[in-house]
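Write out structure tokens for Phosphodiesterase.
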Amino acid sequence: DNAADNQDSIHYYQNGEDEAHLDRLKMLDELKQAISDDDGQLFMTYQPKLHMQTKKINKVESLIRWQRKDGSWVNPELFIDLAEQSGLIVELTAWVVNTVVSQVADWQSKGIQMQAAINVSAQDIASPSFHSALVRTLKKYSVDPTLITIELTERDMIENEEKGIKALQNLKAIGVKISLDDYGVGQTSLGRLKMLPIDELKLDKCFILKLDESQKDQYIVQSSITLGHQLGFSVVAEGVETLDSLNLLEAMQCDHAQGYYLSRPLKAELLEQWLEEYYAKN
Ligand code: C2E
Ligand code: MG
Ligand code: MG
Ligand code: MG
């Protein structure tokens, strides 16, 4: 009986594995197609970042979305992971860069001065063509490099450290800004933090979501803001969901706040409407 049970569970398990494998292959294929067709399945959304001191919205983070042909949504973390594991991320990021830079140019032509952050992976930074492709795209749309921020997580920065740091320094040299995303949950030692060529620290949302209820989170966030400023970085909090948290961050002299309390990530046209409403009230 036991043996039969084992057989069954092994059989079931293997079937599950095969299915998951097939699903991933199918999804990867669809993702490739979605990038090359550029038929609207993939699109960018933009989440505003509030500059606390001036109450202006001068920055957004670009966040990718994928709605498949059958109408189903794929979680970005899932398909970004898939793209990273298959190497497709380089093509996907090229699509993202082109879309976001052209959007920034479009906003400029409408008199909306907006800086945009783009999330990239370790493989993008390691890729020798990333820098030249970004420069080419900025030229193509006549966008000032200082309007673009590259967001990288601690893990992405540390992978291939020496080469990665050199690549980031080269980006900084042409005016592109560098942000350390999800700060506080990765493995950046303070020694490394000191060495990284970054402009911005982005505090992970796990410290921000319950900021108004947690004394410990308040201690962590306050000391990170102070440390960030002393090291010469601008500090952003992601995951601001309540007015209380926003007020706390303002009192702690955090530079920018981003989160559902202000707005969810929006398509460009909706963001433009949101900005009009925001400035009508503020
Ligand atoms: P991330 O870069 O850390 O982005 C922040 C995530 O927090 C986003 O999730 C955003 O929608 C979400 N968020 C913003 N405000 C709040 C809030 O107040 N509360 C909560 N609970 N969540 C909030 P999203 O859009 O699902 O993206 C997840 C991750 O996928 C991103 O994390 C980033 O690592 C990756 N990603 C998204 N777009 C891209 C892209 O274009 N390229 C690459 N390489 N990665 C991307
Ligand atoms: Mg990010
Ligand atoms: Mg983040
Ligand atoms: Mg994240």
